[in-house]
Amino acid sequence: MSESSSRERSRSQVIVDPEPPHAPAAAPSAPAGAQPDGSRALDSLSTGELIRRLSEQLSTLVRDELALARVEIMDKAGHAGKGAGLFGGAGVISLYGVFGILTGCVLLLAQVMPAWAAAMVIGALLLAIGGLMAITGRAQVKQATPPLPEAAVDGVHRDLGAVAAAVERRRQR
């Protein structure tokens, strides 16, 4: 079972399902207040039974939300790693640009143009490449921040809202 379908199943159990997935099958003669699937209506359950079910379902939900958070953080860490690598590459390319400027000052194209102009052209080209790498690295790092599992946090907020709405509906009965 995929992680998202497990999470959705857990959510629907908290809100809708009167029985956890391992509930026994219905007996041929169902007691009064029983549903067609053999489970009892939520209204007929004792407080202790409701609390037991809530505890089971919440632990499953929390476990699933933590798994989602772990996946989300790993994804953001990957973006941060790529961004750091691109920043490192930008530094190396920029260093090559400096070397190009120094080498060009001494050796490059002294016959075609002034030696200083030829060295500046090559150095500027290498620095521009380094600048593009730095911009790309910055975009990767921005994708990784903030390092909070935003989808998991949104899911928890939706879950809490659904539970609060269900409690409010039950109070109004």
Question: Can you describe what's shown?
Answer:
By secondary structure, the chain is an all-alpha fold. The protein has one domain. 72% of the residues lie in helices and 0% in strands. The protein is built from 4 helices and no strands. The longest helix is centred in the middle third of the chain and has 60 residues. It is rod-shaped and about 95 Å long.
Entry keywords:
rod-shaped, mainly alpha, transmembrane, Phage_holin_3_6, 72% helix, transmembrane helix, Phage holin family protein, membrane, disordered N terminus, single chain, 173 residues
% residues in beta strands:
under 5%
What profile does the largest beta sheet have? none
How many strands?
A: 0
What is the CA–CA distance across the termini?
36 Å
If you average the pLDDT, what whole number results?
76
As for the number of domains, it is 1
**Uncertain parts:** 1-28
Order of helices and strands: HHHH
Radius of gyration based on Cα positions: 31 Å
Helix segment tally:
4
The global form is rod-shaped
Strand-pairing-aware structural class: mainly alpha
Protein topology:
Blueprint lengths: L2 H13 L31 H60 L8 H29 L6 H23 L1
